[in-house]
Amino acid sequence: MTHCKSAPLHAVHKLYQYRKSLSTKPFAARGKKLVRCPQCLLGQQFCTCNLRQYLNSNVSFMLIMYDDEVLKPTNSGRLIADLIPNTHAFLWNRTQPDENMLALIADEKYQPYIVFPEQYQEAGQEVVTQVNANGDLAKTPLFILLDGSWREAIKMYRKSSYLHNIPMLSFSPELLATYALRKGSHEFQLATAEVASLVLTAANEPLNAVALNKWFDLFVESSLLGRNRRAKETLLPISDFEEAYLHAVKAAKQAN
């Protein structure tokens, strides 16, 4: 695979460039000697930019990212913006939340939902498990994901009062356990892109959820190949993951 220079920049790419401009020294990620594509941050020989394409979706996502999370090559939040056109990304700030972010949450054309475990529900906060997303809704669902480590996500939620008076979309422990089991090779704690796929299913966009899952699978395999983290005898051809993703995208687009 080669880097696709014409691939359009999205919200996470732009936030990455902004956050990088604030850094006084290079971000020291694992595998820092690897020559990476500046957009997908995968090794150049495993770049997936030429496969990236938008899905048809009736929902919007907002990523609120913890400090240097956007700089990490392992961050999966960018995968949501790769496929879902109406995706926004902001850096979290405890004392000075981004005014554009707050305006978006308050925008009358959106119905915001914070995606978080029900056990952190604030007093009086509504909790839902499904969202009937379709083109006939008066407001577009805006799903807010807190992107960082689990400890960072809890901190962001607890210290962001503007998130406490909007509905919470939450998934049952049983669903999360079943999903993690089905994924097999991943830890119980789901990546941001995996959570987004659950959101898409809850919003009645199951084929988009499958496409995002396959995009995530390709991302994981490409990342591991770039770091030489897989034994040769366990490797499937990367083309298998590419084909599975492209098949899922085609199915999703045909259904819409």
The structure class reads alpha/beta
Global Rg: 18 Å
Helical content stands at: 25-40%
Low-pLDDT windows of residues: 184-188
Question: How would the global form be characterised?
Answer: globular
Query: What is the overall pLDDT average?
Result: 87
Major beta sheet, specifics?
Answer: 6 strands, parallel
Give, in order, the helices and strands. Answer: HEHEHEEEHEHHHH
Strand content: 5-15%
**DSSP helix count?**
8
Structure description:
The chain has 8 helices and 6 strands. Residues 184-188 have low confidence and may be disordered. α2 (77-83) links the parallel β1 (60-65) and β2. It has 256 residues and is an alpha/beta fold. The chain has helices spanning 11-22, 77-83, 99-106, 150-158, 173-183, 192-202, 206-226, 238-255; strands at 60-65, 87-91, 110-115, 127-128, 140-147, 168-169. It has a 6-stranded parallel β-sheet, with helices on both faces. The two termini are 29 Å apart.
Outline:
With 256 residues, this protein is of the alpha/beta class.
Give short descriptive properties of this protein.
256 residues; 8 helices; alpha/beta; 11% strand; single chain; 6-stranded parallel beta sheet
List the topology elements:
Blueprint: H1 11-22, E1 60-65, H2 77-83, E2 87-91, H3 99-106, E3 110-115, E4 127-128, E5 140-147, H4 150-158, E6 168-169, H5 173-183, H6 192-202, H7 206-226, H8 238-255
Parallel strand pairs: 1-2, 1-5, 3-5, 3-6, 4-6
